[in-house]
Design goal:
2 strands, two-stranded antiparallel ribbon, 63% helix
């Protein structure tokens, strides 16, 4: 199977397949006599594993660790659970940060007059880090 077919079958773009190969996340593809990359079922399974891992927000480093564990039948599931737990903590922290951003923007937007006056607490906050005169 060529790279385009592998991309379609795995849900990973050809560009990303080449990238993953260049950083050593996947092994170098076999080549035809004319130099085209070829992929087999095991390669597709690995690419699908990577895509699903990326869909869950795992970093490349975490995916590298997960791939190593996935390919090691003697692994301890505790190692996998540790990586997942660390990722859950990271995602939870990001959710808190996003919620804080939403609350700040809601506050600024609620205090913006939204009229023809130039005072704008949103722009003031972006410019200075403080709420401006138009917030009340």
């Amino acid at each position: 199977m060529n790279i385009g077919e592998a991309a379609a079958a795995s849900g990973v773009t050809a560009k990303m397949i080449r990238h993953y190969e260049s950083i050593g996340l996947i092994k170098e593809a076999g080549r035809t006599g004319s130099g085209y990359r070829t992929y087999g079922p095991k390669d597709l399974a690995t690419l699908a594993f990577i895509r699903r891992s990326r869909d869950l927000g795992f970093s490349i480093a975490q995916i590298r660790d997960l791939l190593t564990l996935w390919q090691d039948r003697g692994r301890a599931s505790a190692d996998v659970k540790r990586i997942a737990g660390e990722h859950i903590e990271e995602l939870t922290a990001k959710m808190r940060q996003l919620q804080e951003m939403v609350q700040t923007l809601q506050h600024l937007s609620a205090h913006c007059h939204g009229d023809d006056r130039p005072d704008c607490p949103i722009l003031e906050r972006l410019a200075t880090g403080e709420e401006g005169k138009g917030c009340h």
